[in-house]
Write the structure tokens for this entry.
Amino acid sequence: MGVRVWWVRRDLRLADNPALLAAARDNASVLPLFVLDPALWRPAGAPRQAYLLRSLRALDGDLGGALHVRRGDPVAVLPAVAALLGADEVHVAADHGPYGAGRDTAVERALAGRGVALVRTGSPYAVAPGRVRTGDGTPYRVYTPFYRAWGAHGWRPPAAGTDRLRWAALDGARALPAEPDLGTVVLPPAGERAATERWLAFAEADLDGYASDRDRPDRDRTSRLSVHLKYGELHPRTLLAELGDRPGHETFRRELAWREFYADVLHHQPGSARTSLQPRLAALEHDTGALAEQRLAAWQAGRTGYPFVDAGMRQLLAEGWVHNRVRMVVASFLVKDLHLPWPLGAHWFLRHLVDGDLASNQHGWQWVAGTGTDAAPYHRVFNPVGQGLRFDPDGDYVRRYVPELRGVPGPAVHEPWALRGGPPAGYPDRIVDHSVERTEALRRYQQLRR
DNA sequence: TTTTGAGTTGTTCGA
DNA sequence: GTCGAACAACTCAAA
């Protein structure tokens, strides 16, 4: 009966956790270890920092206070902890991100020098990135064929639970740092229990109508599970096991598959987190200078004068979360109306989103910018007014996040410049004319044609 | 090797 | 008001 380390990263749960079960096999006692890595902590932004701390506290509660926390570079911390404990195995779920994969290789090497094995079991995905391949053995670059092959590949059923876990203790654990100042941001409840409750509530109330309702930000019937999946408070396999063939179920499974697809793309092309997947589009002409900076600031603050865009940007600042439909609209606005490079927007999102995930975020932005995996028609430009009228037909979503417009009833709220007397006091005029900038965007994209 | 069908989420214009 | 075409070409993936 030995002692093993369970190195917790983005799998903050006890249920359906193959790495934990591997650590605990043969009745070994397990030290649950979280390493606060400054390289990941610093750029995270206050919402994610705070959420992570809350989720760690919840996990620690579920562990009866057994969570061991250290601060530092995992390459130094893991060998030190393993030595203090006398452990010969460290168990993790594999990390396929550009930073995590390199870090794990370095940790593995450092541990091996002391005769300790780094054992990878499972991953944060139903199918580990890199596993789904075309007939040629190459990675997929188009979603739909990936989805078919991913479904055909299949995944394991959820791991059976166990009540035979024994936790090890070790002196020298650091307390978690104090929570950063969140201002007025209100975060969703963190932890495995909250995640499970969210899933059950969603499955009960919204899953059947998901195919049509998910697109309506005014109705707010998306799953809101992104943050829980991000931190591994739930595993997608657990959800997939409960999905059937009804329309809403199929649509939700496809959303989970997008998450897997983008993780796969990032795994094969780590550079896609920073640069356009289509090299030809890297030469797209962007605006620069003082005016461009002013416009970026207006977008960030939710003061573009386009209510649907501003509501989304303010929801981001208020909740660290934005409805998916609105994410596309605000992204399109930055790239195609303001002619600014997508990485600027992607970076702002990562700083403020509580569910900010490198693969999903960067590739979602690339999809909107038309630089991504699909052969996006360059003429796909979202109309911020048309999208608002279509997906927020009564204007309720806009009024929820833009108080200056609360006195404007009905769909007229989407075009405040058309109101008698112009926009209400305190609400800005449009910073650009959409129809003009749409034409300009099309011109710039057209320049890059073969 | 060549061919073929298809590719998340859109918008505008004119009949 | 509704509806279909046009907005271009390109690349992917499998037959």
